Amino acid sequence: MTRPTPILGAVLAGGGSRRLGRDKASASLGEIRLIDRAIKALSGACDEVIVVSSRPDTPDGSWARVGDLRPSCGPLGGIEAALDAATGRGCEAVFVLACDLPLVDSAVVETLMDALGHGSAVAPLRDGNPDVEPLCAMYRSSCLSVASALLDDGVRAAAALFDAVDGLRVEIASEVFLNVNTERDLERATSLLTSSDEGA
To answer: Taking the CA of residue 142 as centre, how many other CA atoms within 13 Å lie in the half-sphere pointing to its CB?
Structure first.
């Protein structure tokens, strides 16, 4: 199935980082910052990669950076900003990736892109509630109006957008989607990354 084109990659880096106590994007895993890992995961498959964040301490780099369209609206607000940026750049879709999912690599991104087909969105299944990881997902730019309407209604959960557009769920190894919220999570991610490198 032909992928939508062009595709914008968007690293979501504007979270509060309350449990970690410092900016997640600047935290390092294997001596590589989480923001740089996310940029690398998206760069090979996307026509351009931007960073979405209104935090003043988010690292700068060679990428363009856009702020949230509305403050304090959580992950869905970040997705809205990414979709708006994609629309403004004439992109047919945006792949959003939270910077605190450091084990997601380009292979995962490619797998999800290939699975979109004619759907409006695609994301991996995960254990828990919700049963999908909406912050490692591709959304067609046409989802912007749905995201904005949800936010207008006070909805903040990213999974609500995914469900509203009847997104496609894809099964991928669940350990890839370890979310780094604490120093212990960072240690676990380092361990998993080391084990993966040794098994390669």
So the answer is: 10
